């Protein structure tokens, strides 16, 4: 009898956890994180400026929501084991900052680590998980990125499950971002632990790093879906190490993968090109599509690839990718692209006549006078199309 009651309680708790998980990230989370651009140089002033800029630059309207402080906000633990905020950089404390961010209609995220110390050598959460979760809940935290440095012999799944349970016990809905770099194949176990999980090591603001991470997503699509996402790391768009064309590609590929979209640039000082990329709603809609399916590589011709993503309402996206260093002229048969994507999922009864083709970077409908067509593609560029259902 006791065992039965225990099992019922357990089932109830796990239902609650799943329900909470699903509601918090039905589509990939969108926001901004301090690390890629500012590293340890974070402060209350900077974070408030980024929140202001997220609103004034139109990112909030485009769907960005979380403002996340990464490593280096914490300096010690006090005699009660409470985490101590760096007062010189955050003079008014985290509750004040959370209130400010919430007053802008945004959400507040913070960073910690499953190990004894964070990757930058600040106090980690090991042994303080439940205490920290209560602290975060008191401050008004909505998102926790939880890293994997200095974990020695810890088991990844149990360490992250422990923090998930601590967050749940703190009774505040908090998106849980698992950051163990794919070391322990989190896609195999993290779907019931966190809302997103990093699949690789850190991105660097360079074409080869970005495409290298993109290639490592191969085979992981089946593990992601509404409420639980593969995370190929944060965006480098606007940080200066790639060309505008390359950033357009970076952003398009992340959206084809249904990746979390965490901007990592200085939102206060964005060029018009950077802003146009980060706020391209037609591309963002691919990422945020409610089916939550990742795209797949339909053709791999070496340095030319075609990716297809199935969307709701029997719509589809196709992304042509020129990875090469030369201008390419490619022949595209939209009929084949449409049929190819049909074969992968269900046989949609529709043909090309049922769709309008839209170029999502040109923001134009395509006049298909003939099919196939020839398309010129600069080096490292993409063309992204959407098959939009007519009527
Ligand atoms: C790790 C993470 C990064 C960042 C740093 C902070 O390297 O993967 O995303 O959070 O730690 O120290």
What secondary-structure arrangement, pairings included, does this model have?
Elements lengths: L1 H23 L5 E4 L1 H4 L5 H13 L2 H4 L3 E3 L5 E4 L5 E3 L7 H11 L3 E7 L15 H11 L3 E5 L8 H14 L5 E4 L17 E3 L8 H9 L13 E3 L12 H13 L4 E3 L8 H7 L2 H7 L8 E5 L3 E7 L5 E7 L5 E5 L1 H11 L10 E5 L4 E2 L7 E5 L4 E8 L2
Parallel strand pairs: 1-2, 1-10, 2-5, 5-6, 6-7, 7-8, 8-9
Antiparallel strand pairs: 3-4, 11-12, 12-13, 13-18, 14-17, 15-16, 15-18
Helix pairs in contact: 3-5, 6-7, 8-9, 9-10, 9-11
This protein binds alpha-D-galactopyranose.
Describe the structure.
This protein has helices at 2-24, 35-38, 44-56, 59-62, 93-103, 129-139, 156-169, 207-215, 244-256, 272-278, 281-287, 334-344, and strands spanning 30-33, 66-68, 74-77, 83-85, 107-113, 143-147, 175-178, 196-198, 229-231, 261-263, 296-300, 304-310, 316-322, 328-332, 355-359, 364-365, 373-377, 382-389. The N and C termini lie far apart (59 Å). The chain folds into 2 domains: 24-287, TIM Barrel, CATH 3.20.20; 296-389, Sandwich (Immunoglobulin-like). The protein has an 8-stranded parallel β-sheet. A 6-stranded antiparallel β-sheet has the order 11-12-13-18-15-16, with helices on both faces. It has a two-stranded antiparallel ribbon with strand order 3-4. Helix 6 packs across helix 7 (156-169) and helix 9 packs parallel to helix 10 (272-278). The model has no long low-confidence stretch (mean pLDDT 94). It has 12 helices and 18 strands. By secondary structure, the protein is an alpha/beta fold. The radius of gyration is 22 Å and the shape is elongated. A hairpin with a 4-residue loop joins strand 15 (355-359) and strand 16. The site of alpha-D-galactopyranose (GLA) has 10 residues, from loops.
